[in-house]
Recover the amino acids of this structure.
């Protein structure tokens, strides 16, 4: 099979047609199969890693308006991990199109990291070829199952969201969050926040950020509503 047909088959497999197929060839070329380091996918891997992280972070920022930085970081770290990239590379069949040197020509000799790196390089190639919107569509399409799975786990710990759903259904009110107190120097403030639902208030909670205090206050309110011990007592 000649190179042109090889690249066409890869594009068909991946569901993206390149305006500049040379970008694809570079993305598929491991250092062991390149004449010079700059002809390999190492530079693209560097860029693709950053593009992937940006797209996922941007998506999570919009999708999880009430989540703390730590929660979003956990989701992002899992989605963009080497293990996830390796798995998706195999699922998409991209692993069948790697251009390797002879020493890496057998599947049982190929480290998992090479598959992950190749997916990142492919992402960079799509970005360079079609721009940010093209690569955003590609990333969200191929990572959608992993994103959805992690979002379910994140939602399970988003106490503000759970409390809002409960109160709107059972109380007829939307929870409101009131800052009762702020302590500490400017660079190290702590916040004391209380949840109000209608005329009823719930035990307040402290947090190192306003958002963390709100999440903890929501957790206190949920515990109170369900007759459970208050997790964040003053």
């Amino acid at each position: 099979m000649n190179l042109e047909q090889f690249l066409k088959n890869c594009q068909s497999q991946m569901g993206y047609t390149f305006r500049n197929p040379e970008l694809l060839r570079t993305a598929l070329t491991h250092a062991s199969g390149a004449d010079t380091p700059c002809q390999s996918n190492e530079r693209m891997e560097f860029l693709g890693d950053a593009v992937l992280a940006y797209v996922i972070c941007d998506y999570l920022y919009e999708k999880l308006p009430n989540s703390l930085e730590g929660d979003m970081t956990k989701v992002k770290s899992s989605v963009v991990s080497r293990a996830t990239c390796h798995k998706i590379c195999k699922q998409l069949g991209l692993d069948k199109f790697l251009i390797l040197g002879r020493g890496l020509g057998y599947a049982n000799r190929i480290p998992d990291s090479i598959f992950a790196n190749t997916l990142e390089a492919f992402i960079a190639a799509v970005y360079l070829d079609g721009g940010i919107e093209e690569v955003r569509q590609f990333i969200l399409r191929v990572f959608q199952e992993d994103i959805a799975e992690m979002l379910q786990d994140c939602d399970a710990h988003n106490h503000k969201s759970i409390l809002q759903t409960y109160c709107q259904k059972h109380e007829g009110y939307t929870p409101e969050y009131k800052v009762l107190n702020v302590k500490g120097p400017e660079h190290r403030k702590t916040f004391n926040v209380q949840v109000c639902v209608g005329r009823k208030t719930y035990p307040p909670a402290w947090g190192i950020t306003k958002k963390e205090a709100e999440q903890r206050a929501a957790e206190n309110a949920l515990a109170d509503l369900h007759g459970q011990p208050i997790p964040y007592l003053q």
Q: What stands out?
A: Strands lie at 176-183, 190-197, 200-201, 205-207. The radius of gyration is 24 Å.
